[in-house]
Amino acid sequence: MTTAETTISIITTDHDLIDHLQTLPGAEWQLVPAAEVKHSHPHLIDLRVQIPANLAAQAEQAPLIGLVADIAAIGEVLRSGVHEVITMADLQPICLHRAISTAQIRWQIEQMRRQQLAEARAQVQALTVRLQNEQIRDPLTGLYTRRYLNETLERELRRADREQIVLSAVLIDIDQLDQVNWQFGRALGDAVIQHLATLIGRQVRGGDIFCRYGSDELLLLLPRVSRETILHRAEQWRASVAETIIRPGTLDLQVTISIGIATFPHDARNAVELLNQAHEALYAAKAAGGNCVRLWPGAQKQTPFGA
């Protein structure tokens, strides 16, 4: 049952109906003529002449009691989306109270179901995003995964070929990571990887693709950058890492990185060659003692940096 002085909005063009409702004996509501449905308030909507096409949408906004001429129209009106139906013959205070109470309960149940459905959809969407991120984002560093790199590299090479631009692969290896893992444990090694990924990541452009390529290797794809610029940037990364003290817990750690660079189309014609040449360049940097930058040894011009 509704409480005393319940406000009921009535949607009708029949002024005689409004006068009739306002003069019903024992009525415990305040009738307010309305042109449209207002959120959450119960509405008595006159459906004796026609059923609005948007009635179901209106029923999502508030409890609706449909007024019909007789019982023959009840089924059709209920199917149209209202929460309860009342006939002209039953338009008395006790019947209207019952209809209002029923409509409010049904509307509240529908609201709860919509909220539960929205929450379930949000959970599914969040799970989908998380699963997608797990496929393309490394959980330790937040960088792209090697799987994402493999899927992206071919597309980037096609774009570079189409637009006649260079695309460079910059492979970075942490020189002392095996020693850190052996001496202090893998958790400390992970902290070093996270720190370096963040440090270098701050200096990466929006169009660059930064990946975790292996357990102790990071890889960047750099489009539209000359060899001279790449060498300069790589040297900045190398020097920045070498000068940084990493403090996981109470320890002070310093590591260095070796960097190998290969460029499409100068050094490679496809993805496999590009990655192979970047590896060869990295091996050359490691063979030189580490903490240095090397172009692919087969490049016509090689400009080493660092040690």
TrEMBL record:
PROSITE patterns: GGDEF. Residues 165-298 form the GGDEF domain. Signal peptide: none annotated. It comes from the Bacteria. One of its GO terms (cellular component) is plasma membrane. One of its GO terms (biological process) is cell adhesion involved in single-species biofilm formation. Pfam families: GGDEF (PF00990). One of its GO terms (molecular function) is diguanylate cyclase activity. NCBIfam families: GGDEF. This is Diguanylate cyclase. It comes from Chloroflexus aggregans (strain MD-66 / DSM 9485).
